[in-house]
Design brief:
mainly beta, Jelly Rolls
């Protein structure tokens, strides 16, 4: 993360003796990225974070299988038709993915088991409901519209307050704010569409007692369940630049031009081989002859995965797209407004409409996305032909 935080109790100097009230030493743990040559945090545990008493492999099943997008086609998936059998981790239904990122959907009302993704960062978007995110760093209360970014290796769990729907973005590396929004020292610049004040991180330690506690761990070799001697939520304090945080899509400040701006103005995060964008309500393009709707476009280097989370997408009227829909427009396909949409929006502007109400989360990938069974099970087979009607 681009700025320093300290939570709970930490010693004045790094890597010095830090003693418990009974005189024993707290166990120091350094969480560091990129071979400890990038961001890191120091966590101080009551017990050894290395003490495990059991390890067992976990079968992944066939739900992780991906199929090429062949024949090449734009796709429409209806997540409203999906229901997952597990929690917000084990119940994830794989929608699409490649070597850089996996995109899954989950809906659940039950707490997840403790989980650690050791393959990469995760960004989980809450479409509906409220959930408490608990981790070794502390807790974050999250709700509709929140992105929760979870650093690689963070032990955590999800505790819903009733039914919760999420889109899980699992990276093969680290997810960060775009570099162009930051100074050379990591501060958000004035032109950035959000800043440090918009980010919410754990504010106090989360201490939980327990022994022989299982933790599901994902690695490049598959899934393992490790059993820890003591509950890993035993951190009395931590400091550094690496920690989970939440950012709400309503705090994104859209960048507006006289004429329609391309998707990079909506970029919110970047990961290895992909970007995440937030489409939010904003003033319409204000040139007197503007066409305030996306032009036909062909992103020749990217697949576009768009999750419609709220509002009204006038450009897609007649396509079947609605809240909860996901469209996938591959790099080999030109897409844009539905027939008649341009004229309808120009007429609306003439009647005094001045703002959009659309809300969506978009993931653009720089390698082709293959399709998961979750997406194929809820596909609208007629979507590809809606431009020809």
């Amino acid at each position: 993360m681009p700025y320093y935080r300290v939570v709970g109790e930490v010693p004045r100097k790094r890597h010095v003796q830090f003693r418990r009230p009974d005189g024993g030493l707290y166990a120091e743990e350094l969480m560091g990225e990129e071979g400890f040559s990038s961001d890191s945090s120091l966590l101080y545990h009551r017990h050894l974070p290395t003490a495990i008493v059991k390890a067992e492999a976990v079968e992944t099943g066939t739900e992780t299988r991906l199929e090429p997008n062949l024949p090449l086609s734009p796709r429409h998936f209806r997540t409203q038709e999906l229901s997952s059998a597990g929690d917000l981790v084990t119940g994830r239904l794989l929608l699409a993915g490649n070597g850089d990122v996996r995109l899954s959907y989950a809906t659940s009302d039950r707490p997840s088991e403790l989980y650690r993704n050791s393959m990469g960062d995760e960004c989980v978007y809450v479409q509906r409901g409220r959930v408490r995110f608990e981790s070794t760093y502390g807790a974050i209360e999250a709700g509709e519209g929140d992105y929760i970014v979870v650093p690689t290796g963070t032990i955590h769990r999800w505790v819903p307050e009733g039914p919760v729907n999420v889109l899980a973005i699992e990276a093969a590396g680290h997810i960060r704010p775009p570099k162009r929004y930051l100074s050379q020292y990591g501060q958000f610049l004035e032109h950035a569409p959000y800043c440090e004040r918009d980010l919410r991180a754990p504010a106090e330690p989360l201490l939980v007692e327990g022994e022989e506690v299982p933790v599901l761990v994902r690695t490049r070799g598959g899934l393992t369940r490790l059993v820890y001697r003591h509950h890993p939520f035993d951190v009395v304090g931590w400091d550094g630049y690496l920690y989970p945080f939440a950012f709400n899509i309503d705090d994104f400040e859209p960048i507006v031009k006289k004429t329609h701006a391309p998707p990079p103005v909506h970029q919110t995060f970047e990961g290895p081989g992909f970007v995440v964008c937030s489409f939010c309500p904003r003033p319409l393009d204000y040139h007197p002859e503007a066409i305030p709707i996306p032009y036909n476009h062909h992103n020749v280097d990217s697949d576009e995965f768009m999750f419609y989370v709220g509002g009204d997408y006038s450009a897609r009227a007649g396509s079947g797209i609605e809240v909860g829909s996901i469209s996938l427009h591959p790099a080999g396909f030109t897409h844009g407004p539905q027939p008649g949409a341009v004229e309808a929006v120009i007429d609306a502007v003439a009647r005094g409409v001045t703002t959009t109400s659309e809300m969506a989360v978009m993931v653009d990938t720089f390698r082709p996305l293959d399709l998961g069974q979750g997406a194929l099970s809820c596909e609208d087979p007629g979507y590809a032909w809606t431009w020809a009607r």
